[in-house]
C-alpha cells in the first residue's frame, strides 16, 4: 500500500467512524459500506462531502450509488487526488 | 426555529414596494404556474415549506427532478439576495438526489451561505421530508451578486427588460 493510500485510508475511516458513530476497528478494505450500522444515503453523502472538502476533490455522482466496499471508495478518492 | 420571520418574496427591495413585473417561477405569488415559495428567515438560514402537485410530476407520484432543482436554486438564491439585497444570478448548480420527492407530500427546503469570495457566493441547500425528516436532495450553488456597478456597466448580456427591472429595483431600494 502506498504512503498516500495509507494516510488516505486512515483519514477516510476516521471520517466514516465519526459520521456513523462506530469504531474504526471494524472497518477494513473489504467492509461493505451498505452493511455498516447507522448508514443511510444522507450519511453517505455527508461522508463524501467531508472528504471532498478535505482533499479538494469532487466525487462523481455515480460513486454514491455504485461503490460497494471501503477499499473501492478509498481507491476512487486516491485516483481523484492524483488526477487533480 | 427561534426568532424567524416570514418574508414576502414579492417585496424584493424590502421597502414594501411590490414590483408589477415580478413573475418569478420560483417565488412570485402572481405566477399561476409557479411554485409560489414563501420564505422564513432564521438567523443565517432561510427555509420554506414545499408541497408540489401532480402538474409537476415526472413518473407517477414523483416530482420532476428539474422542479427539485428549481426549489433548491430558488431558496439558495434567496439567501444570496439577502446578503446585500442585490439581485444575484446562478452561475453554477450541483444537485445530488438522494431519493425521489413525492407529489402532494410536505417538505422543507432550507439554505445557508457556505462561503463568499468577492462578488461570488457559495450556498448550500437541502430538501427534506417535513414529517419523517429524511433528505431528498442536497445542492451546492454558486451565485454572482449583481452590484449596482455591474448592472450599470453595460457589460451584462441580459435582456433590456431584465436590466430595466433591476434598475427599477435599485431606484426603489433608495426610497
List the helices and strands and how they pair.
The complex is a heterodimer of chains A (84) and B (175).
Chain A: H1 3-20, H2 41-55, H3 61-66, H4 70-83
Chain B: E1 5-7, E2 39-42, E3 45-50, H1 65-84, E4 88-97, E5 107-117, E6 120-129, E7 135-145, H2 148-152, H3 160-173
Antiparallel strand pairs in B: 1-2, 2-3, 3-5, 4-7, 5-6, 6-7
Helix fraction bin of chain A: 55-70%
Order of helices and strands of chain B: EEEHEEEEHH
Radius of gyration of chain B: 16 Å
Most extensive interface, residues per chain?
Answer: A-B, 7 and 6 residues
- Across the major sheet of chain B, the strand order is 1-2-3-5-6-7-4
Indicate the low-confidence ranges of chain A by residue numbers.
none
Based on CA atoms alone, the radius of gyration of chain A comes out at 12 Å
Largest sheet of chain A: none
Give an overview in words:
- The complex is a heterodimer of chains A (84) and B (175).
- Chain A has 84 residues and is mainly alpha-helical.
- Chain A contains 4 helices and no strands.
- Chain B has 175 residues and is α+β, with helices and mostly antiparallel strands.
- A 7-stranded antiparallel beta sheet of chain B has the order 1-2-3-5-6-7-4, covered by helices on one side.
- The longest helix of chain B has 20 residues, at 65-84.
- Chain B is globular.
- Chain B starts with a strand and ends with a helix.
- The chains are: A mainly alpha (84), B alpha+beta (175).
- Chains A and B meet through helix 2 of A and loops of B.
Describe, in short, the structure shown.
The complex is a heterodimer of chains A (84) and B (175). By secondary structure, chain A is mainly α.
List descriptors.
heterodimer, A: 84 residues, mainly alpha, 63% helix, B: 175 residues, alpha+beta, seven-stranded antiparallel β-sheet, 22% helix, 31% strand
